[in-house]
């Protein structure tokens, strides 16, 4: 390529003189021969420094024209300086328009040869023009198999493998060169890489997370491949390439589910799920149906959500699925569903959970979350349901919003039901499971951020320093069921949510996972911007899972803790509920809000009875 560029530059000089002097054969002098020889000697090092010889012609990005323009401009200016010095020494005069013609013709020739060669290579050899160069991160057998599978399949072309192991770097594996990971930024620029595929599922989570953090900062799309043991046949390896999920970047350690606990809770049982069409409820249903219950009752207020989850579950197997359309505040409908089908296990996931919406609709939030829980728990107690599990929230701890306060009331209602059940000694178990945000749930920030990124931004956050706990929906569902199986009654179980995540960091990571740069002061002209809109009513800067961490006792499951019931305040709920119901019936929002928060102000005071008044 260097020899072609040298010839092109010599031709550009001859043509520049020919155009300027309007003759086909300009006079050849020693000065002109010297300048002609100097031009490529000056230009070629500039071209090398600007990376014109690093790119593979077939995958030369369109943006390379700007690099060619800059390289040719620097080369021309350097040549002009030499011309000026020669003129100062009295060695002859070069017409002023010759350097201009040289720049224009040189740019056209240097750029034209490259893009013409690219066109010939991509059309003349039968390669599709939509192929994009990619790197595979990893140098194991799976990576080599993936590289072979991608050859001639889809629109990706593997440029090489990336690996952190020095013993692999510089080698060829399966016919592909292995590059060090430290060279990734320059390799991406050199080959115009738009995507990196990770083939490293077998490595430890901490190392995988470090690689993810490093790669997502490079402004390319990142995808992943499951472990080779998860693939049925190598022919299908290409279809297994998937998007990196945000929970992988959070680096949560995974603990396999205890199958004994899951079977104890679900297998052969008649199970009912309220809020069955919601994010948590639907995932619970998917888990339950795989554990072979005797029957699954889907209780849901939304007709569309109920239809959708029923249709999905019907494709899984032949187990009886009973869809029940109704509200948890309707005691007759709840009673009919439990009584007619003989429900033995009940997961109460139905709730209004969107903080700003519940804050704007206080009475409905209380009616559904508090009295809906009271209705379902009361009927469950009357109909001798063996196990009742309330799905609670970290917002129930020292709540500052209506949604969190209603969840705390729901926990206290379930605790009272557990106390009454224990006094009857009939073996009924009532408990609550408290955890933070689940990734991808309806109304959470993750789907919102994805939608905003898809539209090109900006991504709106309330406060970059706000922190939240996050957990994947399938993991949450498994832990909920296992916690229910561990309950002795009256428990509040706390799921280990790992470390809290800054919302600002979450937004940046999601933008980078999508293959974009974050637009900020360092990168003001491209990428997706993050816009701070301020906290909404009722929002806390950070959430908590514990009233008192010292009162949380470890169970035999490493991800499930139990709040010490001896350290929890006792509540006389009946009078409080009567007054709250009167406020709801009178549609007195101010009084309802006042009662809602008055009860839970004593949550920090252990070993006491909180009376009404």
Automatic annotation (TrEMBL):
Pfam families: Polysacc_synt_2
InterPro entries noted in UniProt: NAD(P)-bd_dom_sf, Polysac_CapD-like, Polysaccharide_Synthase-Rel, SAM-dependent_MTases_sf
Residues in Polysaccharide biosynthesis protein CapD-like domain copies: 271-563
Keyword Amino-acid biosynthesis assigned: no
Regions crossing the membrane: 34-52, 64-86, 98-121
Keywords: Membrane, Plasmid, Transmembrane, Transmembrane helix
SUPFAM superfamilies (alphabetical): NAD(P)-binding Rossmann-fold domains, S-adenosyl-L-methionine-dependent methyltransferases
PANTHER family (alphabetical): POLYSACCHARIDE BIOSYNTHESIS PROTEIN EPSC-RELATED, UDP-N-ACETYLGLUCOSAMINE 4,6-DEHYDRATASE
Family: Belongs to the polysaccharide synthase family.
Protein name: Polysaccharide biosynthesis protein
Organism whose genome encodes this protein: Shinella sedimenti
């Amino acid at each position: 390529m260097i020899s072609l560029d040298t010839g092109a530059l010599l031709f550009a000089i001859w043509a520049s003189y020919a155009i300027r002097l309007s003759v086909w054969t300009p006079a050849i002098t020693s000065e002109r021969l010297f300048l002609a020889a100097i031009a490529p000697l000056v230009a070629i090092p500039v071209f090398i420094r600007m990376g014109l010889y690093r790119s593979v012609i077939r995958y030369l990005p369109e943006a390379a024209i700007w690099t060619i323009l800059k390289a040719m401009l620097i080369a021309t200016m350097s040549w002009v300086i030499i011309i000026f010095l020669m003129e100062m020494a009295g060695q002859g005069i070069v017409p002023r328009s010759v350097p201009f013609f040289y720049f224009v013709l040189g740019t056209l020739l240097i750029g034209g040869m490259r893009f013409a060669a690219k066109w010939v290579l991509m059309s003349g050899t039968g390669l599709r023009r939509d192929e994009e160069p990619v790197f595979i991160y990893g140098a194991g057998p799976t990576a080599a198999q993936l590289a072979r599978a991608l050859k001639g399949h889809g629109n990706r072309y593997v440029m090489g493998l990336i690996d952190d192991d020095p013993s692999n770097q510089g080698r060829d594996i399966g016919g592909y060169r292995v590059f060090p990971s430290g060279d990734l930024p320059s390799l991406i620029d050199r080959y115009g890489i738009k995507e990196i595929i990770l083939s490293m599922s077998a490595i430890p989570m901490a190392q995988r997370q470090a690689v993810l953090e490093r790669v997502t900062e490079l402004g390319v799309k990142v995808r992943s491949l499951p472990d080779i043991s998860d693939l049925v046949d190598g022919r299908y390896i290409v279809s297994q390439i998937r998007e990196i999920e945000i929970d992988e970047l959070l680096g949560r350690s995974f603990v396999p589910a205890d199958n004994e606990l899951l079977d104890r809770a679900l297998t052969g049982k008649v199970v009912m799920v309220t809020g069955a069409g919601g994010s948590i409820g639907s995932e619970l249903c998917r888990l339950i149906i795989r554990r072979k219950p005797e029957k699954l009752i889907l209780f849901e207020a939304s007709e569309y959500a109920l239809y959708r989850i029923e249709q999905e579950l019907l494709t899984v197997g032949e187990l009886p699925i009973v869809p029940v359309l109704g509200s948890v505040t309707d005691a007759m409908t709840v009673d009919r569903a439990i009584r007619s089908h003989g429900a033995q296990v009940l997961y109460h996931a139905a709730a209004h959970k969107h903080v700003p919406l519940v804050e704007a609709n206080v009475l409905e939030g209380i009616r559904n979350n508090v009295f809906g829980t009271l209705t379902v728990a009361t009927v469950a107690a009357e109909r001798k349901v063996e196990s009742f599990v309330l799905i609670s929230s970290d917002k129930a701890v020292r709540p500052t919003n209506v949604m969190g306060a209603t969840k705390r009331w729901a926990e206290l209602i379930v605790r009272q039901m557990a106390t009454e059940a224990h006094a009857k000694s009939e073996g009924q178990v009532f408990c609550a499971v408290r955890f933070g945000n689940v990734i991808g749930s309806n109304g959470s920030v993750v789907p919102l951020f994805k939608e905003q990124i898809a539209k090109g931004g900006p991504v709106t956050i309330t406060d970059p320093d706000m922190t939240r706990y996050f957990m994947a929906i399938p993991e949450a569902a498994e832990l909920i069921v296992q916690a229910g199986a561990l309950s002795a009654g009256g428990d509040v179980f706390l799921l280990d949510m790992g470390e809290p995540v800054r919302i600002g960091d979450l937004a940046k990571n999601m933008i980078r996972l999508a293959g974009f740069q974050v637009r900020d002061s360092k990168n003001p002209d491209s990428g997706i911007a993050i816009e701070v809109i301020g906290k909404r009513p009722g929002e806390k800067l950070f959430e908590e899972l514990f009233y008192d961490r010292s009162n949380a006792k470890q169970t035999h499951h490493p991800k499930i803790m139990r709040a010490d019931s001896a350290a929890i305040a006792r509540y006389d709920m009946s009078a409080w509920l009567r007054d709250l119901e009167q406020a709801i019936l009178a549609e007195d929002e101010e009084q309802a809000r006042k009662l809602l928060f008055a009860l839970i102000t004593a949550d920090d005071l252990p070993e006491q009875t909180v009376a009404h008044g």
